[in-house]
Amino acid sequence: MKAVIIGAGRGSRLRHLTEELPKTLVPILGRPMLDGILEALAAGGFKRSDVVFVCGYKADVIRAAYPDLTYVENRDWAQNNILLSLLCAREHLAGGFVSTYADIVYRPEIVADLVRSPHDIALACDTDWRRRYVNRSQHPETDAEKLRADASGRVVELSRRIPSEAATGEFIGVMKLSAPGAARFLSAFDAARVAFAERPEFREGRTFRRAYLIDLLAQMIESGDALHKVDTHGGYMEIDTLEDASLADAWWRGGS
C-alpha cells in the first residue's frame, strides 16, 4: 500500500505565501504543512519510501527539499483539478493507497484509524467541522466537502451542496482504499472518463477535467458503491486562504 499526497496546485488564495513556495510548504504551527502530513502518514505505518507526491507548481522546490519521496508530475496542474491530479499517480494505486490533500493539518492518529478500518473505502470525517467556519469569511460553509452517513457509518451523500444542518461532518481530504477498493475506484474513474470527458458537465457544473475527488466518490455512492466514514472530532484544519493561515494557531489551540 502506498501513500499519495496530492499537491500539484499553486494555492493562489494564499497570495504572497505561495509566490516562492508550493502550498504544502507554507509554515503553519511553526512548520511546513507537509511535515505534519508526513508525520501523520508515519503513524499509519508509511515510510518515506512509501510516499508518492503528485507535484506541479514549484515542483523543483519540493523535490529539492524532500528528495527521499517518490514524485510524479501533473504537468497540466493549472488546467485540471484534484481528481486528475491523483490519477497522475495511477501506477502506484492498484495495491491500495491512502491519499491526502497537501494543504491540510491533522492529527496523526487519523491515518492510523483509517488504516485499521475494515472497509475497502474509508473517508476521514470531521464531526466538529462547523466550529472552524465561525468568523471565516473567505471560505464559507458552502465550500466544505460535506457528507451524510447512515447509522452504520456508510456514506450516503457527499457534496458541497449538502445543507450544513443535514451534514454528518466534513470530508477532510484523507481516505484509505484497500486493493479491492482501489480497483473499484479506478473502474469508476475509467467509466466516468468515457462517459463525461467530452461533455460540458460532469457534476455540479464542473467538467470532468476540472472535477474534484469528491465528484467521483459521489458518483460511486450514487451507483451503489459502499464508502464508509471514519470519524475525527476536530484535530483537522484546511489552510486555503490568508485568513485561514492567520486563524490556524487559534483553531488548533481550541481543538481544531
Question: Which key phrases capture this entry?
Answer:
nine-stranded mixed sheet; alpha/beta; two-stranded antiparallel sheet; 256 residues; 13 strands
How is this structure best described in words?
Strands 1, 4, 5, 6, 8, 9, 10, 11 and 12 form a 9-stranded mixed beta sheet that branches. Strands 2-3 form a two-stranded antiparallel sheet. A two-stranded antiparallel sheet has the order 7-13. With 256 residues, it is α/β, with parallel strands linked by helices. Helix 5 (179-196) crosses helix 6 (213-222). The two termini are 29 Å apart. It is 28% helix and 23% strand. It has 7 helices and 13 strands. The protein has helices at 33-43, 59-65, 82-87, 109-116, 179-196, 213-222, 242-253, and strands at 2-6, 27-28, 31-32, 51-55, 70-73, 97-101, 104-106, 121-126, 146-149, 155-159, 169-177, 228-232, 236-238. The longest helix is centred in the last third of the chain and has 18 residues, at 179-196.
Please give the oligomerization state of what you see. Answer: single chain
Quick check: average pLDDT?
Answer: 97
How many DSSP E strands?
13
Query: What's the N-to-C terminus distance?
Result: 29 Å
